[in-house]
Amino acid sequence: MYILAIESSCDDTSAAVLRDGILLSNVTASQAVHEAYGGVVPELASRAHQQNIVPVVDQAIKRAGITKADLNAVAFTRGPGLMGSLLVGVSFAKGFARSLGIPMVDVNHLQGHVLAHFIRESEDDHDQPEFPYLCLLVSGGNSQIVKVNSYKDMEIIGQTIDDAAGEAIDKCSKVMGLGYPGGPIIDRLARQGNPDAYQFSKPNIPGYDYSFSGLKTSFLYNLRDWLKDDPDFIEHHKEDLAASLEKTIVDILMKKLRQAVKDTGINQVAVAGGVSANNGLRNAFKDHAKRYGWKIFIPKFSYTTDNAAMIGITGYFKYLDKDFASIDLPAYARV
Predict the structure, then answer these.
(1) φ/ψ bin of 79: left (φ > 0), alpha (ψ from -120 to 50), beta (otherwise)
(2) What pLDDT, on the 0 to 100 scale, is given for residue 36?
(3) Are the beta carbons of 165 and 143 closer than 8 angstroms?
(4) Same domain, yes or no: 115 and 139
(5) pLDDT at position 150 over 90
(6) Do 13 and 84 reside in the same domain of the chain?
(7) pTM as predicted
(8) Which range marks the domain in which residue 265 is found?
């Protein structure tokens, strides 16, 4: 049984093909045009998707070694995301599925991230979490702790009340004049710096919820004061600034996650989303596995950012349940 999956929620156009839940191909076209603007420009993103989606889908099918006539279903990201970007993928999926007379499966983008750990690249790949497990979902737009009872039963037990961790990293990188996207830049610089060089504000939020707006403000005000004394402060200390910022964010994330593990008694813990590519966060997960006996699940770097493989595996589970989408289902920007 072959599924074509399509992901177009933001600025990556991606298509994948799975056979009986095994990944055969995963093709992604990224958009460099946004770097000049310091963030994703929705109108430019949707236009790039229109240019990319046909060749990306074509390559995914060819690399899988099949033809479109072999496909049994089309899975697609219905939301959340940028509406213009989503409309390109949703419209293409509808037309493609209708032309072949095969069913469609709509997928929640965030659910796809959480289930990325079930992507299998071969029949012998069985390193997946057992239900229930906890998943720390961290990206540019989301910071959540999710209790995953099954592929279709997920409970958000903690989330940011303002900014997401990835957004905080990007904004601080922009303030330092380092460029966009900030995540990879901060990650690279942090490896060369002292994580204890500077102290930034940490929130005191009850429960498992997060807050990163105070951290951004603290970073900005401290930087402003340091620049008064040394106009070249950032250039002289950017490695230490990046390392200290990264450590602060990782500490905030892991503190709440430790509490959730302790309270729920669930020691199978996964991380997902774009920020899960951060080396500091990955090392923190490995450290907690040793210190607290967690069984951890860290995705491959190719499955941390937006990709169609995660949409495909989620669509596969829904296909097995015959949970199909009707042709009139609209895209949605927010949950």
Answers:
(1) left
(2) 67
(3) yes
(4) no
(5) yes
(6) yes
(7) 0.94
(8) 133-301
